[in-house]
């Protein structure tokens, strides 16, 4: 079993400040953390921590930083043999204030972005993976190329041949974010979107369970059979269609349970990884959704997006989620 994550590899520099300085002001950071970052790398790290064999397709800089990032990825157990190395490393500076509010300043050289040629070079690996995970930090043409390469044996949703049930479907394609390009959505099986992104996809505000469900139905109509949408009370809605492996329409809302939030950065990345791991294990929908939220919650307690998923943190969060679900049911 392998998951291919096609996404960004960056050096994340997280500076914890009492307050973000205004124009003409300076702030002393009381903590500084540097780490392998970018949504692609974060998701790959989280998958590796969850015990899922994972390969990364993203660009590493041909500089000292790029070398450090790749070494870290290798130490994390990620296969980086398909990573092109060129140019300057991508750098993302996160300013995290005392309220846990973050601001990013990023320098993403053009050379740090995936091209369709990079994707073509990894086409065989994409097609043979069990899941392909994409985020929107890469150019749309590269993402579309990756989705097409992954599903070369079947067309996008809406293609009668692909929907016939007789065509081999290839890997599960998972998309993190709301693509401006509707074509990309048609190639995805699973989508994760925060509130704002879900609103963009649905063309209407999402926030409550009812509105989220409406958005999910629209999303299912356009392609993905599973939508994981953030609601405005910190809960997550997971809505699946009959085209899902579970074969029925259904949904579950998992309440947000983590009490201490140092930084929300990276929580979505861990959620995606938790969901992919659960889908590949063949979990039932409630268990898959709970596993995804447990992974996300485990990432909230520390500054920066790097996941720190341990069996202990996951089972602590799982127990809280199970309690919350029992409470909702009772
Ligand atoms: O999803 C969080 C990530 O997004 C930003 O790109 C940072 O790299 C951070 O680690």
Automatic annotation (TrEMBL):
GO molecular function, one term: ribokinase activity
GO cellular component assignments: cytosol
Similarity comment: Belongs to the carbohydrate kinase PfkB family.
InterPro entries the UniProt entry points to: Carboh/pur_kinase_PfkB_CS, PfkB_dom, Ribo/fructo_kinase, Ribokinase-like
TM annotation in the entry: none
A Pfam family hit: PfkB
Residue ranges occupied by any Carbohydrate kinase PfkB domain in the UniProt entry: 3-307
Signal peptide: none
Entry keyword set: Kinase, Transferase
Native organism: Catenuloplanes indicus
EC number: 2.7.1.15
Name the record gives this protein: Ribokinase
Region (Disordered), start-end ranges: 296-317
């Amino acid at each position: 079993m392998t998951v291919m994550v096609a996404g960004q590899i960056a050096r994340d520099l997280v500076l914890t400040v009492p307050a973000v300085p205004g124009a003409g002001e300076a702030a002393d950071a009381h903590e500084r953390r540097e780490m392998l970052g970018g949504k692609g790398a974060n998701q790959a790290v989280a998958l590796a921590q969850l015990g899922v064999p994972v390969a990364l397709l993203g660009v590493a800089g041909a500089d000292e930083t790029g070398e450090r990032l790749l070494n870290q990825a290798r130490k994390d157990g990620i296969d980086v043999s398909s990573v092109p190395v060129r140019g300057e490393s991508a750098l993302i500076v996160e300013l995290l204030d005392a309220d846990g509010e973050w601001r990013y300043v990023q320098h993403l050289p053009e050379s740090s972005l995936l091209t369709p040629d990079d994707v073509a070079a990894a086409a065989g690996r994409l097609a043979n993976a069990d899941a392909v995970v994409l985020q929107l930090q890469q150019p749309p043409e590269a993402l579309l190329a990756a989705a097409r390469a992954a599903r070369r044996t079947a067309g996008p949703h809406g293609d009668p041949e692909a929907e016939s049930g007789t065509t081999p479907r290839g890997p599960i394609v998972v998309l993190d974010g709301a693509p401006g390009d509707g074509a990309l959505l048609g190639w995805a099986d699973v989508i994760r979107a925060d509130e704002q992104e879900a609103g963009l996809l649905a063309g209407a505000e999402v926030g409550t369970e009812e509105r989220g469900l409406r958005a999910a139905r629209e999303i299912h109509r356009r392609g993905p059979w599973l939508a994981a949408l953030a609601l405005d009370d910190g809960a997550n809605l997971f809505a699946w269609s009959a085209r899902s492996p579970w074969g029925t329409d259904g949904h579950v809302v998992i309440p947000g349970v983590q009490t201490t939030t140092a930084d929300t950065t990276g929580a979505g990345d861990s959620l995606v990884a938790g969901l992919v791991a659960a889908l590949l294990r063949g979990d039932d929908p409630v268990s898959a959704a709970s596993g995804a939220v447990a992974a996300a919650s485990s990432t909230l307690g520390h500054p920066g997006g790097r996941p720190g998923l341990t069996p202990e943190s996951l089972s602590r969060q799982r127990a809280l989620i199970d309690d919350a679900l029992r409470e909702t049911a009772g």
